[in-house]
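Re: beginner question about structure tokens

> Can someone show what the tokenized structure looks like for a real chain? I only ever see the sequence side.

Sure, here's an example I had lying around. Input first:
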Amino acid sequence: MPGGNPKEPSFAETSGTAGVLERNVEAILSHREQFERARTRQDRIADSITRFAGSMAFVYIHVAVFGTWILLDLGWLPVAPLDPTFVSIALAASIEAIFLSTFVLISQNRMAALDDKRADLALQVSLLAEHEITRLVEIVTEIGKKMNIDASHDPELSELSQTIAPEKVLDTMEQTERDRVAASH
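And the corresponding structure tokens:
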């Protein structure tokens, strides 16, 4: 192009996966939007409070408020102390901590539920990919045998072409973990 560089094509454009990639991105974004719309008012409030409590503005406000309160109670400002024993400030901080920790837990519980859904999706995609690869190994092995290719007689291929039930993998993992725990005691 005269006077400028041509735009470099994206991976999706050069790999021929543009349709699949765009569909997947759209599905993920659509799911995220549905999840956000499905949040209750209480969830939105808890998330907003948690987001603000995790900001530097929150820190600055607390430094200013509690710093002023402490300076007043120490008698370092030309105003009568509010509570020279610091009981009121401790009570206020404790109550605030109770509420903030509750809001954080509410947000974490919601995020944990979302993470569980994502983990289930990832597992389902992995199981589907494993099944597809197993079928491909079977097909390629049969093609190799018909073409009399030596590598197609590798005994490992028959093991790779076996469908493995996810329950069996989980059972094996749990048994291995129990054996390790028992061996360590």
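Each token stands for a local structural state, so reading them left to right follows the chain. The CA atoms of residues 32 and 145 lie 47 Å apart.
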